[in-house]
């Protein structure tokens, strides 16, 4: 039940508060606070602030807590986890990856060029939406509705398709009506994506940050601007434009086949109606692209202004033109029969080339931005020399192409009853050649990844061997054993693999670009899938082509199932979540600035929660706060501190451990977490300690140059003891990224931070520290 805590009007000496923020994988309030009896002071089941039951009214008795701060736990794990159905978000992984590219922009003072970079990323994200809807349209309209239903050899044994088969000669047997019926699949997908984006916005991302008096001064870091975590207008505008683009893609798939037939056989009225739809469709497509280009985020204030009228009518116009295309395509056309495949092959090739051109333009922008950094910029291991954004965008496009091509090929293989679509004797022509080629290069990509993994494993063994002498020097007064030394050296070597990620991504992106270009070239030059191109080749090449085509489709099907299974396990199993959680939580930490259908941003709920709590508690009590963040919680803590007023920030100390701020975020997102930005945060606070270990694969030192000795505490000895001793009678484990609070250095640094915070003055008790439920 919920109760109000009343401490009365007497005068008290303010408390010190330690606000704990957990990291990837989540945990319970009981585990964070080390007590089975906890109460929730504020929040809900999704994210809330908890205390020990004995500390619920600590503000009324501050004299009882003079030696150490009162602990509160902010639990946010339900923002990124829940029931297993949420694992389906993993199928939208290309959208999330492309959204990351928006935030990887190199830091610069060239605002126009920076805006051009962001516009290119948003257009690239729009092509991914078009690609997804076009792929579903290809499967539903072309492979099922046009090819399979139009051929007796394919539809004969499929009772679920019999009513629409060409040989049935029923009302649905005409090609245009079959296509209109099949269009329900991509239209439903578009509607589901719109609904998910709209629903998750109101569930997680509509929290208004605290309004500060006056405009922010010039030079304010982006993360300190009031509108950074509130992109309501931008996301709504992008959602409308992407939904319209999806509907227009389905409209194109419906209109073009009917107009192609009418051009040679139909009457003047039907041709005029078709070209009118095409003209309206083109105008709406240009409007949607313009809406995407103009969907900038307004960071210097809370942007609640309504959308322009053009974007408000865009969705209605796209829906209307889709209905017109359904009526136009379903019109009675005697003599129209389906043959071959729909005229969509060139569209997929053009879309792939368009994505390649946008990635190239993005790379040019990134190079120019990297060459014009701000005066205080320090290139401390910047990932891929400023090309991280284009590389990640290319990776998202490649993943989207492989998934769509593989799903289309797998569907055609399933409908073809074990034969290879496009081969001799098959009733199906199969998907467009470029999609088949993209599916066929999957075995080659996996082979390259296997070679990269083998090279990485060899490097790991060499590094482990080189570290053994260094490990023995870390424990100089111990009797060394080869197995124990090898265990510690292996932990340090594995932790260092994180720093090899940029090179690995560069190799994967280069391979993806080369193979993608080869797929487009093979589709254009060969004019068909690999199995057709190789028909005149020697038997070995024909077998390789057929095997690659079939194996690629099977691997995509198995990959989709494995991805969903891994996601379901990660949402339910903490150990699995810790394995994949860091990548997922980094991806969903950032607002949806480029793609509105990406998984929702949990930080747009968590950061306002933390900043509101710190500001309101210090205002009500006059007390001091240590915000203590582990792993991803340290990123949330830093982002929340940035959002505070300078007066409140002066009463807050930051304690981070297992912190990826410099090691991951600083290298990949330098415009927001680069060394200069972190130094500015330290200069605003002056009170910050960071604990780190060499065995930690995620966290590391903050490395603020001249301020490094003030902030970084480490490396902490891990394991705490090499062998057994009186103080350690049992073998000490290698902790790596966990259990920092068990290290004596944690309590020491917390005490030092508290001593450095300015003493608070006695103030009248405010009657309540919040609401509690128990």
TrEMBL record:
Instruction: Specify whether Membrane is a keyword of the entry.
Output: yes
Q: Which InterPro entries match?
A: AB_hydrolase_fold (IPR029058)
SUPFAM superfamilies on file = alpha/beta-Hydrolases (SSF53474)
Q: Which residues cross the membrane?
A: 116-136, 179-196, 241-260, 272-292, 313-331, 347-370, 382-403, 441-460, 503-524, 544-567
* UniProt keyword list: Membrane, Transmembrane, Transmembrane helix
Name assigned to this protein: Integral membrane protein
Species this protein is from: Actinacidiphila rubida
């Amino acid at each position: 039940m919920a109760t109000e805590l009343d401490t009365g009007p007497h005068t008290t000496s303010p408390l010190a508060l330690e606000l704990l923020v957990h990291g990837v994988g989540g945990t319970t309030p009981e585990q964070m606070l080390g007590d089975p009896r906890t109460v929730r002071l504020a929040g809900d089941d999704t994210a809330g602030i908890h205390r020990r039951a004995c500390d619920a009214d600590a503000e009324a008795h501050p004299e009882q807590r003079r030696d150490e701060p009162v602990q509160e736990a902010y639990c946010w794990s339900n923002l990124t986890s829940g029931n297993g159905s949420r694992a389906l978000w993993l199928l939208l992984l290309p959208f999330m990856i492309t959204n990351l590219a928006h935030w990887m922009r190199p830091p610069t003072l060239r605002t126009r060029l920076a805006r051009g970079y962001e516009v290119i990323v948003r257009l690239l994200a729009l092509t991914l939406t078009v690609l997804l809807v076009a792929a579903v349209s290809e499967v539903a309209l072309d492979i099922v509705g046009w090819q399979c239903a139009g051929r007796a050899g394919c539809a004969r044994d499929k009772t679920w398709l019999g009513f629409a088969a060409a040989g049935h000669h029923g009302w649905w047997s005409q090609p245009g009506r079959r296509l209109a019926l099949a269009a329900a699949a991509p239209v439903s997908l578009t509607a589901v994506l719109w609904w998910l984006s709209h629903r998750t916005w109101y569930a997680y991302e509509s929290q208004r940050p605290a309004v500060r008096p006056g405009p922010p001064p010039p030079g304010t870091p982006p993360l300190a601007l009031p509108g950074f975590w509130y992109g309501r207008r931008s996301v709504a505008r992008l959602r409308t434009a992407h939904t319209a683009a999806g509907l227009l893609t389905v409209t194109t798939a419906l209109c073009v086949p009917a107009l192609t037939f009418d051009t040679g056989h139909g009457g003047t009225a039907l041709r005029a109606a078709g070209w009118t739809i095409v003209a309206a469709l083109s105008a709406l497509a240009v409007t949607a692209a313009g809406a995407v280009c103009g969907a900038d985020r307004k960071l210097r204030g809370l942007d609640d202004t309504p959308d322009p009228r053009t974007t408000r009518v865009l969705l209605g116009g796209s829906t209307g033109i889709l209905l017109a295309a359904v009526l136009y395509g379903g019109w009675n056309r005697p003599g129209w029969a389906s043959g071959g495949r729909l005229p969509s092959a060139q569209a997929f090739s053009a879309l792939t080339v368009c994505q390649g051109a946008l990635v190239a333009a993005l790379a040019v922008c990134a190079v120019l931005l990297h060459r014009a950094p701000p005066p205080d910029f320090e290139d401390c291991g910047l990932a891929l020399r400023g090309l991280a954004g284009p590389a990640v965008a290319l990776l998202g496009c490649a993943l989207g192409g492989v998934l769509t091509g593989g799903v289309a090929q797998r569907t055609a293989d399933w409908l073809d009853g074990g034969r290879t679509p496009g081969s001799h004797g098959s009733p199906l022509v199969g998907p467009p050649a470029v999609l088949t080629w993209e599916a066929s290069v999957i075995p080659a990509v996996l082979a390259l990844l296997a070679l990269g993994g083998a090279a990485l494993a060899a490097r790991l063994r060499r590094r482990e061997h080189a570290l053994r002498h260094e490990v023995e020097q870390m424990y100089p007064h111990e009797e060394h054993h080869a197995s124990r030394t090898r265990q510690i050296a292996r932990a340090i070597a594995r932790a260092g693999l994180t720093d090899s990620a940029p090179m690995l991504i560069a190799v994967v992106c280069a391979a993806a670009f080369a193979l993608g270009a080869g797929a487009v070239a093979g589709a254009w030059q060969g004019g068909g899938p690999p199995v057709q191109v190789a028909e005149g080749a020697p038997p070995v090449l024909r077998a390789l082509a057929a095997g690659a085509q079939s194996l690629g489709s099977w691997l995509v099907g198995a990959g989709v199932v494995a991805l969903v299974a891994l996601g379901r396990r990660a949402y339910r199993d903490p150990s699995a979540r810790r394995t994949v959680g860091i990548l997922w939580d980094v991806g969903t930490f950032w607002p949806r600035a480029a793609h509105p259908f990406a998984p929702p941003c949990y930080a747009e709920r968590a950061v306002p929660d933390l900043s509101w709590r710190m500001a309101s508690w210090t205002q009500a009590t006059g007390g001091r706060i240590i915000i203590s963040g582990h792993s991803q919680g340290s990123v949330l803590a830093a982002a929340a501190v940035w959002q505070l007023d300078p007066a409140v920030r002066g009463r807050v100390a930051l304690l981070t451990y297992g912190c990826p701020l410099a090691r991951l975020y600083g290298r990949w997102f330098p415009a927001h977490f680069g060394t200069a930005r972190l130094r500015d945060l330290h200069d605003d606070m002056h009170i910050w300690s960071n604990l780190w270990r060499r065995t930690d694969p995620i966290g590391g030192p903050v490395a603020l140059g001249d301020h490094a000795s003030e902030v970084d505490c480490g490396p902490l000895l891990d394991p705490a003891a090499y062998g057994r001793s009186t103080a350690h009678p049992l073998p000490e484990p290698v902790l790596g990224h966990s259990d920092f609070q068990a290290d004596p250095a944690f309590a020491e640094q917390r005490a030092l931070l508290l001593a450095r915070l300015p003493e608070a003055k006695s103030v009248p008790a405010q009657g309540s520290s919040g609401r509690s439920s128990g």
